[in-house]
Structures are given as structure tokens and as C-alpha cells.
């Protein structure tokens, strides 16, 4: 068709589609392929030695290879609270790989997508939750010492701002991801009001710093029934969403789109469990969701989870064929 660019690369296509400009085709992105899935499918003779993204003709994308998280986090969260400075130092050379300069040189001339995950630990991970044993102490900490919580989150945000500066001095990522595990399938583990009280200043600062460097596509990644978090994320400058295991948590992308429109880009959302239930269930899921979401725009279809080893290879192939038929008409 006239006006549609030909042979766009993955970077051009991703940005143009999310910004409402013409594209040669939609981005082809799946969350990821679990390592044991790749091993199993290769052992079964289905995959060759290429990365599965290349095998299935998906758009290549990588993550900025830095380590924003704590090194050797303690089991007791109370060890962290007195001195967050011990755990977050943007100048620590371990945060960048030894081949950082080489990686950046290659990324400078890339035609593939690079994501950046600066908010790599959600609030509860920053405060030290590692298992259910640490959950209760952190909840009491939130209620009993809110000023100290704010100090820790403020310091963490300042640390991330410096890390963003260091990364963006060398490479320009195509989009950012903010991880925030904050919900079970039943709902948020704290109230939306408490989440806003602690997180709104942090999110605003991080989104402003990303905007400064031209990173305009910013996705929240979470799991569970996170619907009450969406207004907070959008108010702060996050304009995209991927919900891991969305359907198991009752998060229906059709309802999200009806409520928030295209101001919030959506990625994923297709019930991964239907691929285990047979072709009919999978097709019904695709037919119910994909056409209306595509018609509204700013939707990149894909599974709502990584591709797990209990998904049969043949079923995944059928899923991709059906999806491409709906998206690209072939």
C-alpha cells in the first residue's frame, strides 16, 4: 500500500507502530523461551542451533546487559534497612560486563531491539523480600517506619537515576521495562493508596529521567491482579503494560483496553494455558482477543507467559501460524 515503508527493521517498526505511524508489518515478539523448553525441543529434533526467536522469525531483541540488583542479598530484610548505600552503588564495576564497550559498539549500529530494565527490583524486593518468611517483617516495616521506607526508596531511585545516566551515555535503548511484583492472583498485597504514597515520587523521577534520554516507550511488567496499579503507572509516565500470567489472575486485555484506551500500549495477553488445552481452545482465545485489540491499535500480540516446556512444539507452531494469519493475513 502507498505510504507504508518497505523492509523496516525491528527498531523502526517497534517505534513507528507504538507511535501510530505506518509499518510494513506488526512487531513479532514473545516474552521469552524458557531454557528447558529450548533444550527439550532441540532434543526432540524440532529446533536447530539457532536462537528460537530466529527459528520462528520473531524480531530479535536483547536487554542492556547490566546488573541493577543487589549482590548477594541477605535472607533477613532487616539487614538492608539501616544502610541501602551498601547494596546500591552505580559506580560498582560489577554492574557492567567486561565487554561493555564492545557490546555498545555493536548496539550503536544495530537494527534489532534493545530493552532497558532500570527499575529491576520492585518495591518489595528493594526492601528485602526474598521468600514468604521475609514478607511479614517488610509489611510491618511499611506500617511502622514509613519515613525510613521513603528514605530507602528515595536512595534506590537516586541510584537508578545515576545508572540510567551511565547506560544512556553509551547506548540508546528502544524501550524500558519497570518490574513491580506487587500482587497475587487475588489482588494487590497492599492498598493502591499505600502503593501510590510510596511509589509515585519514584516512578515520576525514573520516567522523567528516561524521557530525558528519549526513551518514550516505558512498560510496566507485573503479575497477578494488578489492575488497581494501572492508574498510578499511567499518571507517572508509564505507557505500556505486560502482565505475566494475566489470564490466570483475571486480567483481560480487552477490558483493560476498554477502560484505558490506546494511551496504554499492551503486549502479550494471550492465555498460554490454551496451548495445552488443544487447538480449538487456542483458536477461540485468539479469535476473541486479537482482532479487536489489533483494530484499536498499539497492541503487540503474544503469550501471557514465557514459552514453557510443557507446551508441545507442534501446538506452539500452530499458534504462531494462526496468529500470523490474523495479524498479517498469511
CATH structural fold name: TIM Barrel
Number of strands: 9
CATH class categorisation:
Alpha Beta
**CATH architecture tag:** Alpha-Beta Barrel
- The total tally of domains equals 1
Mean pLDDT across all amino acids = 95
Strand order of the largest sheet: 1-2-3-6-7-8-9
Tell me the structural class. alpha/beta
Q: Give the low-confidence spans.
A: none
Structure description:
This protein has a single domain, classed as Alpha-Beta Barrel (TIM Barrel). β6, α9 (230-236) and β7 (240-244) form a beta-alpha-beta unit. It has helices at residues 10-18, 35-43, 52-55, 100-108, 123-126, 132-144, 146-168, 192-212, 230-236, 253-260, 279-296, 313-328; strands at 61-63, 113-119, 175-179, 183-184, 187-188, 218-223, 240-244, 265-270, 299-303. α11 runs parallel beside α12. The protein has 330 residues and is an alpha/beta fold. The strands form two sheets. It has a seven-stranded parallel beta sheet. It has a two-stranded antiparallel sheet with strand order 4-5. The chain has twelve helices and nine strands. The mean pLDDT is 95. The longest helix is centred in the middle third of the chain and has 23 residues, at 146-168. The two termini are 16 Å apart.
Descriptive key words:
330 residues; single chain; two-stranded antiparallel sheet; 43% helix; alpha/beta; TIM Barrel; seven-stranded parallel beta sheet
In summary, what is this structure?
The protein is built from 12 helices and 9 strands. By secondary structure, it is α/β, with parallel strands linked by helices. It has a single domain, classed as Alpha-Beta Barrel (TIM Barrel).
Amino acid at each position: 500500500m502507498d505510504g507504508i515503508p518497505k523492509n523496516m527493521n525491528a527498531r523502526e517498526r517497534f517505534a513507528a507502530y507504538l507511535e501510530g505511524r505506518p509499518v510494513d508489518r506488526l512487531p513479532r515478539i514473545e516474552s521469552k523461551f524458557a531454557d528447558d523448553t529450548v533444550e527439550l525441543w532441540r532434543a526432540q529434533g524440532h529446533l536447530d542451533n539457532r536462537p528460537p526467536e530466529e527459528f520462528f522469525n520473531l524480531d530479535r531483541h536483547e536487554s542492556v546487559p547490566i546488573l541493577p540488583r543487589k549482590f548477594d542479598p541477605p535472607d533477613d530484610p532487616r539487614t538492608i534497612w539501616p544502610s541501602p548505600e551498601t547494596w546500591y552503588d552505580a559506580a560498582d564495576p560489577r554492574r557492567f560486563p567486561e565487554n561493555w564497550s564492545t557490546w555498545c559498539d555493536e548496539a550503536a549500529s544495530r537494527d534489532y531491539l534493545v530493552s532497558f530494565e532500570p527499575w529491576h527490583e520492585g518495591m518489595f524486593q528493594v526492601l528485602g523480600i526474598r521468600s514468604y518468611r521475609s514478607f511479614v517483617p517488610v509489611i510491618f516495616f511499611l506500617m511502622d517506619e514509613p519515613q525510613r521506607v521513603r528514605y530507602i526508596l528515595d536512595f534506590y531511585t537516586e541510584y537508578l537515576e545515576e545508572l540510567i545516566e551511565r547506560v544512556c551515555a553509551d547506548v540508546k535503548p528502544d524501550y524500558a521495562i519497570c518490574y513491580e511484583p506487587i500482587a497475587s492472583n487475588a489482588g494487590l498485597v497492599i492498598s493502591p493508596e499505600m502503593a501510590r504514597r510510596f511509589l509515585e515520587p519514584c516512578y515520576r523521577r525514573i520516567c522523567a529521567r528516561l524521557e530525558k534520554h528519549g526513551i518514550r516507550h516505558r512498560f510496566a511488567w507485573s503479575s497477578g491482579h494488578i489492575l488497581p496499579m494501572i492508574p498510578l503507572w499511567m499518571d507517572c509516565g508509564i505507557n505500556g503494560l505486560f502482565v505475566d500470567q494475566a489470564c490466570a489472575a483475571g486480567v483481560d486485555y480487552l477490558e483493560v483496553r476498554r477502560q484505558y484506551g490506546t494511551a496504554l500500549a499492551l503486549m502479550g495477553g494471550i492465555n498460554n494455558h490454551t496451548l495445552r488445552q488443544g487447538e480449538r481452545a487456542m483458536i477461540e482465545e485468539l479469535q476473541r482477543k486479537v482482532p479487536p485489540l489489533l483494530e484499536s491499535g498499539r497492541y503487540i500480540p503474544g503469550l501471557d507467559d514465557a514459552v514453557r516446556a510443557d507446551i508441545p512444539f507442534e501446538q506452539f507452531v500452530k499458534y504462531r501460524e494462526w496468529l500470523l494469519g490474523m495479524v498479517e493475513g498469511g
